[in-house]
Design a protein that fits this description.
By secondary structure, this protein is of the alpha/beta class. Helix content is 51%, strand content 11%. Helix 6 (60-74) crosses helix 9 (115-137). This is DDE Tnp4 domain-containing protein.
């Protein structure tokens, strides 16, 4: 048998061999509207406010309010191949992911949809939640807002002229490909940093998301947009004013821990060796640390509400940023 005959036989064998075709919709997912969690469990949860809150970390009223605000941006068109997932189910899938921290595979099996479909829904809906709600609930700071925050900090935490408490939270992620040690932090894990200014009621006033885990909190803040705006005087900070019951005119400041550099708009505790021998400095440290704890408490409340923070995020860095921003703007 010559080489030409061998080539012909080989081509015939390839033509006759069965080709495994890709399935457009898996048989399990075809039962989406019969056995899917959205069509079976979700209607029953809406009848029990307590269970609904535990499942989605918000009331049915809040759910419907958010849905009405974003549904026009997450609705999909009908095609002749398949019926799209409705906006209400897309929001339910996203909140289920944020509230439980379950994997895409687990949620896909529960809702009878594809795993890649869940990933796409979470990425898109989180982005829409941020772009829609941020201008309403996390507006750019104004002088009036800073003045109100300062008064509330003094009334609640007895720290005058305070604009907010600042700190960074390392959000654990799976090591991004080809990232080297950029995201490897001192906690011996890979992370992106959520830098936040928090008000006296544990509310997020300003955030910056995506700093490398290897960088310090102080460096991330100074290189962030809000840090640069504080430095160049474009953050609408009120003019200095008198401290209560004194004639001392002092500027308005943020309060942080030792990781931040002492600046005109940032105050930090005195070194312990210095404060131990000076009662006034020790009292100052106590006041500052008591007021500064609101940012630590806010991070704790954020993680307790959205359990996605309890596990490493198996997401691209871009998607992880969208998830973090969405949870912050949903945080109350």
């Amino acid at each position: 048998m010559d080489s030409d005959e061998e080539e012909v036989l080989l081509l015939l064998a390839l033509i006759d061999s069965p080709v495994k075709k890709r399935i457009w919709i898996h048989d399990i997912n075809r039962q989406h509207r019969i056995h899917g969690e959205f069509h079976t469990l979700y209607p029953r949860l809406r009848l029990d406010e307590d269970r609904f809150f535990k499942a989605f970390r918000m009331t049915t009223e809040n759910f419907d309010e958010i849905l009405n605000m974003i549904k026009e941006n997450i609705i999909k068109s009908f095609t002749k191949y398949r019926e799209p997932i409705c906006p209400e189910e897309r929001l339910a899938i996203t909140l289920r992911f944020l509230a439980s921290g379950d994997s895409f595979r687990c949620i896909a099996n529960s809702y009878r949809v594809g795993c890649s479909t869940v990933a796409e829904i979470v990425d898109e809906v989180c982005d829409v939640i941020w772009t829609t709600l941020q201008p309403i609930y996390m507006k750019p700071p104004t002088e009036e807002m800073w003045n109100l925050t300062s008064e509330e900090f003094y009334n609640m935490w007895q720290f005058p002229n305070c604009l907010g408490s600042i700190d960074g939270k390392h959000v654990t992620i799976v090591c991004p490909p080809n990232s080297g040690s950029n995201y490897f932090c001192y906690l011996k894990k890979f992370s992106v940093v959520l830098m936040a200014i928090v008000g006296p009621h544990y509310n997020f006033l300003c955030i910056d998301v995506g700093g490398f885990g290897k960088n310090s909190d102080g460096g991330i803040f100074e290189n962030s947009v809000m840090g640069r705006r504080f430095n160049n005087g474009t953050m609408n900070v009120p003019r200095p004013k008198l401290l209560p019951r004194t004639n001392d005119v002092t500027p308005h400041v943020l309060i942080g821990d030792e990781a931040f550099r002492l600046q005109a708009h940032v105050m930090k505790p005195f070194n312990q060796r210095v404060s131990r021998v000076d009662r006034r400095k020790e009292e100052y440290n106590k006041r500052l640390c008591r007021a500064r704890r609101v940012v630590e408490n806010a991070f704790g409340l954020l993680a307790q509400k959205w359990r996605i923070y309890f596990k490493p995020m198996h997401l691209k860095v871009s998607s992880a940023k969208k998830v973090i921003k969405a949870t912050c703007v949903l945080h109350i």
